[in-house]
């Protein structure tokens, strides 16, 4: 086994990592990495952050080494966002054929070592919170910090849409609406550790993705002012252990704080749900922090139920005065 760090992946690395994450998703029935981590998995150099890669020897006569993709025979991968103030965030995945061989521990040890050296707190996400991830987190001194619920509802029957007086709806226009949208997004998610930090680069990366569709990106305006938005996403059908049909997602809904409390959030949510149903989708899903009780109450009132939880584990640096 070997481990190396880089701020720039080769094209071979990118192809190998995409195959690795696809194999993990098919085996586990859940995507192992967030959208943001997947977007950083490209040959473009990272301005901030690191890629950590754990490999096995490329020796064809070792029978217990699976035929992993890529010239380096990548067995495990972690993405580290190391620029978020004094709290870093990381995600990791190990190829299903190389689990329980030390790759996860090797990656986590490297992540915690870097965080300790910088006196930074470290968050690591466990998608679906599997027992192996729980055990690994406890072994390296992590404790549960955040719970991110995935909620779902069928789209067969939906309430009607009632817009507040004076509000109109239009579609997002790429190349025109980025700055205005970012301003409302920042205001809507002030203090949120991920969403509230988005930059124009984060937005443009998503606009370049094959799934991006401005026909499903709704903007609410009042007196010429952007009041809120609902950005939808469509997930293609998935195969593997838990095969699923194509599904719609409430990717993000946000309001300018001055427009909160007047029914606009509910109306925007329903506009997106009607759009997804009109696309022929039978089910919609979303992600919401368990501390966001206002949003959870809205979603439950609209018929969403909790489907699974992702857990963010936090570790304080070893020499921190907080430990």
Question: Could you explain how this protein is built, in words?
Answer:
With 323 residues, the protein is an alpha+beta fold. It has 2 domains: 2-147, Gcn5-related N-acetyltransferase (GNAT) (Aminopeptidase, 3-Layer(aba) Sandwich), CATH 3.40.630.30; 157-281, Aminopeptidase (3-Layer(aba) Sandwich). It is 28% helix and 29% strand. It contains 8 helices and 12 strands. It has helices at residues 11-28, 35-39, 103-117, 131-139, 178-188, 200-207, 264-278, 293-301; strands at residues 2-6, 50-55, 74-81, 87-94, 121-126, 143-154, 167-171, 217-222, 225-235, 247-255, 283-289, 305-315. It has a 12-stranded mixed β-sheet, sandwiched between helices. The longest helix has 18 residues, at 11-28.
List the helices and strands and how they pair.
Blueprint: E1 2-6, H1 11-28, H2 35-39, E2 50-55, E3 74-81, E4 87-94, H3 103-117, E5 121-126, H4 131-139, E6 143-154, E7 167-171, H5 178-188, H6 200-207, E8 217-222, E9 225-235, E10 247-255, H7 264-278, E11 283-289, H8 293-301, E12 305-315
Parallel strand pairs: 4-5, 10-11
Antiparallel strand pairs: 1-2, 2-3, 3-4, 5-12, 6-11, 6-12, 7-8, 8-9, 9-10
